[in-house]
Amino acid sequence: MRLSVIIPVHDERPTIEQILERVRAVPIDKEILVIDDGSRDGTREYLQARPPQPDLRVFFQPENRGKGAAVRRGLDEARGEVVVIQDADLEYDPQDYRKLIEPIDQGLADVVYGSRFLGWPRRVLRFRHQLANRFLTTLSNLATDLNLSDMETCYKMMTRDVAKTLRLRSDRFGIEPEITAQIARLGYRVYEVPISYHGRDYWEGKKIRWTDGIAAVWTILRCAFAADEHDEDAGYRILQRMQKVSRYNRWMWQQLEHFVGNRVLEVGSGVGNMTRFLLRRERVVATDLNERYLRILRQLFGSYPHVTIDRFDLNDGRPPPGAERVDTVLCLNVLEHVEHDDRALASLHDLLEPGGRLVLLVPALRALYGSLDRALEHRRRYRRAELLDKLRAAGFEIEDSWFFNLLGVAGWYLNSRLLRRTTFPPLQLALYDRLVPLLRVESRFRLPVGMSLIAIGRKPRRR
């Protein structure tokens, strides 16, 4: 497992040579990436004059943009399976890499934070600095629902797959809470380990200022309420926001649970909002065709021995590599994306063992089709008779069907047809999640209309 050590540097001429020696002395297979962020004290000239070394790559920013910009550059350039951020000021000891990498190497963690407040030795410095750090960590924990002891630590180690899913934009010290917010939002497994810390004072070159604390507060709040606005993938934005409506997700699962067997193929798993409910089944194959989603699924569920993560494109209908017959295919909000849905249904029929079930959920009511559907690349919304006819044509017997989520009709029409939005506002979803008791009342009745349509198709048993 190769480690990429990212060292953002700005005016660190007194320490740059020593930190490089300390990093190189750690007996771990690694590459060192130094990103000079417009230094003017001779650091840049020193780096330019160093002879080339196979384990060292140096990048020069055209101007001073801040630590966050330098870290982003390093993450883009990293080639190792694991990456870690290393300040150049000698406050953090590279010998701690071995403690940081252990939970990742053992398959326990996707991200590891080195906490200055759990370890020793630790230089005693100003109380107000510690107080500010505790405040920022507490505020971040409230926003992310993590229980970190040191959010602001420089030592953040993560797999490269995790790093590639981050969409960072902070240029300065706001990078710390931004990384934390996105890691929490993506649901990665986070560990903390104790590290030593030898902090320096301002006369020794410490750069962080009180204004950076204010900027960190702003970043925490921005990430809490609009963390994914910059992401161009509308489907990803909605999936991430839907991850937070835990009551709604659980209610949806409860509507389907008794139809789901023990060997399940989930088609279009996305970021795992429903996959997490399948973990008690004997065998789970979670699939998607989006590489970004597959990376997230592997990070979340790859350590479970009974879970397989595979690419599966319902458009071509070819089964995942090594796929076996299953007793249940779970296909939620996927069929509407497929050009030839009749062929897709026939393919799903073939993947089922005799007597197996297809649990299908699709958007209903053509009158609701609007900007949200276009952003999500929906090709259609279904009529009930149309869907059931296609299921029968694919060889299924109809076990049950019903409309689902009448309460959502008004919200979809408002956002998609009237306001022409491409995603749901987070606060609106949070409010909707609180209305699940009303949805539970609705589910006691078989209403003639709803935002979605659920159908249960059974593959006939051999005679």
Walk me through the structure:
- The chain is an alpha/beta fold.
- The chain has two domains: 3-226, Spore Coat Polysaccharide Biosynthesis Protein SpsA, Chain A, CATH 3.90.550.10; 234-458, Vaccinia Virus protein VP39 (Rossmann fold), CATH 3.40.50.150.
- It contains 17 helices and 14 strands.
- The protein has helices at residues 13-25, 43-49, 67-77, 97-105, 127-144, 160-165, 175-185, 210-226, 234-243, 246-256, 291-301, 341-351, 371-375, 384-393, 407-418, 426-434, 436-442; strands at residues 3-9, 30-36, 56-60, 82-85, 111-115, 156-159, 190-194, 263-267, 283-288, 307-311, 326-332, 352-363, 397-404, 452-458.
- The strands form two sheets. It has a seven-stranded mixed beta sheet with strand order 3-2-1-4-6-5-7, with helices on both faces. A seven-stranded mixed beta sheet has the order 10-9-8-11-12-14-13, with helices on both faces.
- The radius of gyration is 26 Å and the shape is elongated.
- It starts with a strand and ends in a 5-residue tail after the last strand.
- The relative contact order is 0.09.
* Architecture per CATH nomenclature, i.e. the level-2 architecture of the largest domain: 3-Layer(aba) Sandwich
Percentage of residues assigned to helices? 25-40%
Looking at this structure, what is the CATH superfamily of the largest domain? Answer: Vaccinia Virus protein VP39
Q: Which overall shape is indicated by the principal axes computed on the Cα atoms?
A: elongated
Which CATH top level class of the largest domain fits?
Alpha Beta
Averaging pLDDT over every residue, what do you get? 89
Low-confidence stretches: none
Tell me the domain tally: 2
Number of H/I helices? 17
Q: Which range does the strand content fall in?
A: 15-25%
Rg, rounded, reads: 26 Å
The end-to-end span amounts to: 53 Å
CATH topology of the largest domain: Rossmann fold
Strand order of the largest sheet: 3-2-1-4-6-5-7
User: Could you give the count of β-strands?
Assistant: 14
Q: The biggest beta sheet, please?
A: 7 strands, mixed
Structural class: alpha/beta
